[in-house]
Design a protein that fits this description.
- The chain contains 16 helices and 23 strands.
- Strands 1-2-5-9-10-11-12-16 form an 8-stranded parallel beta barrel, surrounded by 4 helices.
- It is globular and about 80 Å long.
- By secondary structure, the protein is of the alpha/beta class.
- Strand 17 and strand 18 form a beta hairpin.
- Pfam families: Alpha-amylase.
- This is Alpha-amylase family protein.
Length: about 525
């Protein structure tokens, strides 16, 4: 079976405002992303996922969009995004941008017009009520917003907002709204983006179907049919935090979303690491619906939001939270963790490298959040999810090489104190240090890219007596790769016969120098080994 490009992609998630500032205004910009493309390419990334750069008040990291068709002046200009697209093409890379169409900012023209009169042509762009419905869903941020309804004095009605009150929900059952979303998609697709990360995709389905999911799924049929004639390689990467049973509806027969960001696996990655037991991760992966041939899943360790551990069994939930977020300040929204990966794993570079080897051993498209490749920390003094949205730490010069502006003007405070401060944790230091986390992750990425058999349709778990080892076999008509990841701090030895036979296997990746496997395969604590049979 031939692959489509996203099945062998490595996605690097960039927040343009926090990556690199070229004009010394304290905020990163698109030109800064261009200047750092060679660094991103050297990591082995093939695709950029850009967090929002659209016109926005910036009250929700740019997800409160005022104008979906215009670049925020703080990020640059439309010429800058065109330049970025051109420069990524030169390097054989692609760009995914955000489709934020579940809501807008309350400063958006549509909402400002909608408020003015019930007869406004924009009134039905949003969801209004004279009296809030008693059985509506709980707010997405329950510790911040008491309800999903907000009274608007000018409109004389309540408007619905599943997220923040300054982000009113769009009425996606209104054909005029959907036509505007079509226009947004075509604008960016025709400019040359490779796809869209569809924000809040499962909530869009509910709104498009006016509460009836079966009707709402047709929204993604429409987007697929809109994009594919002129842009057949475009992907729709859906933020879909739903039950395993529901996932298949987002693929349908491959005519809806292309790839699903898989939250269920994300939760079970951390459960497996916390318990030093691969069983829950293997079980979760085997429960997933097999995606259509041209579709797949997307996996990550950390993103720009909270780590949502909701839906785990209560005992497992408590175990993970006590392990990785033992104090209340590390927790958020009554369901998740607001820490970066490195502090969760105590800054142990061996442990962090193992976590990335595990990520790249999973049957799907891996995502690396900017800064995770060097083990950046978090700032728990910042509100809510802002704790994991600090500026990139490039070197130990003032401003961490992020910006030449006065630090007081930075979009977010740089991490300047504590064990994850930029003097200690930065790209320059790790580029110069052999065996650093950055060097290890680069090696993992580059080896993975040479293994085309590694994707969902080719994987089989290998059952071992040592449950602390995640073991998987990928095989196509040309080659087989076996991957062994030790989730435990203690070393382990695996019987080679139990490991499905390793005779003649060539080691292509390892955390250390090991003897060739004969009767046993040895793994260090937090060790990993990938072996290939041709």
């Amino acid at each position: 079976m031939g692959q489509v490009w996203h099945q062998n992609a490595v996605i690097y998630q960039v927040d343009p405002g926090r990556f690199f500032d070229t004009n010394a205004d304290g905020s990163g910009d698109l030109r800064g992303v261009v200047q750092k493309l060679d660094y991103i390419a050297s990591l082995g990334a093939t695709t950029l996922w850009l967090n929002p750069f659209y016109v926005s008040p910036g009250r929700d990291n740019g997800y409160d969009v005022v104008d979906h068709l215009a670049v925020d002046p703080r990020s640059g200009t439309e010429d800058d995004i065109r330049w970025l697209l051109e420069e990524t093409r030169k390097r054989g890379m692609r760009v995914i941008v955000e489709l934020v169409a579940q809501h807008t900012s309350d400063q958006a023209y549509w909402f400002q017009e909608a408020r003015k009169s019930p007869q406004s042509p924009f009134r039905d762009f949003y969801i209004w009520s004279d009296k809030p419905e008693p059985n509506e869903p709980a707010p997405m941020f329950p510790t911040v917003e008491p309800s999903i309804w907000r009274w608007d004095e000018e409109a004389g009605q309540y408007y619905r907002h599943l997220f923040y009150h300054h982000e009113p929900d769009l009425n996606l059952s209104n054909p005029l709204v959907v036509a505007e979303v079509d226009r947004i998609l075509l604008h960016w697709a025709n400019m040359g983006v490779a796809g869209f990360r569809v924000d809040a995709a499962s909530h869009m389905v509910e709104q498009a179907g006016a509460g009836q999911k079966e009707t709402g799924y047709a929204l993604f049929d429409r987007f697929h049919d809109l994009l594919m004639p002129d842009n057949p390689d475009t992907i729709l990467l859906g933020e879909v935090d739903v039950s395993v049973e529901e996932m298949k509806h987002y693929f349908d027969e491959g005519q809806r979303l292309t790839t699903l960001l898989n939250f269920w696996i994300n939760k079970n990655i951390f459960l497996a690491m916390a318990r030093e037991d691969s069983t829950p991760l293997c079980k979760a992966l085997e429960e997933l619906p097999v995606p259509p041939e041209r579709c797949g899943y997307c996996f990550w360790l950390r993103n720009h939001d909270e780590l949502d551990m909701e839906d785990l069994d209560q005992h497992d939930y408590d175990f993970v939270m006590d392990k990785y977020a033992p104090t209340e300040e590390m927790r958020i929204y009554g369901r998740g963790i607001r820490r970066r990966l490195a502090p969760m794993l105590d800054g142990d570079e061996r442990h962090l490298a193992m976590a990335h080897a595990l990520l790249f051993s999973l049957p799907g498209t891996p995502v690396i959040r900017y800064g995770d490749e060097i083990g950046m920390g978090d700032d728990l003094n910042q509100p809510e999810r802002e704790s994991v949205r600090t500026p990139m730490q490039w070197d130990d010069s003032p401003g961490a090489g992020f910006s030449a502006a006065d630090a007081a003007r930075f979009i977010s405070p740089i991490i300047a104190t504590g064990p994850y401060n930029y003097h200690k944790i930065n790209v320059a230091e790790q580029l110069a240090r052999e065996g650093s986390l950055l060097q290890r992750i680069r090696t993992i990425v580059h080896v993975w890219r040479e293994l085309p058999e590694v994707h969902y349709h080719c994987f089989t778990h290998v059952t071992l007596s040592q449950k602390c080892v995640y073991a998987v076999r990928y095989e196509d008509e040309n080659a087989a790769t076996l991957m062994f990841i030790n989730l435990a701090a203690a070393p382990v030895e695996i019987d080679c016969e139990e490991a499905a036979g390793l005779a003649g296997a060539q080691e292509v990746l390892a955390d250390d120098t090991y003897d060739a496997p004969t009767q046993t395969l040895r793994l260090n604590g937090y060790g990993y080994r990938w072996l290939r049979l041709m």
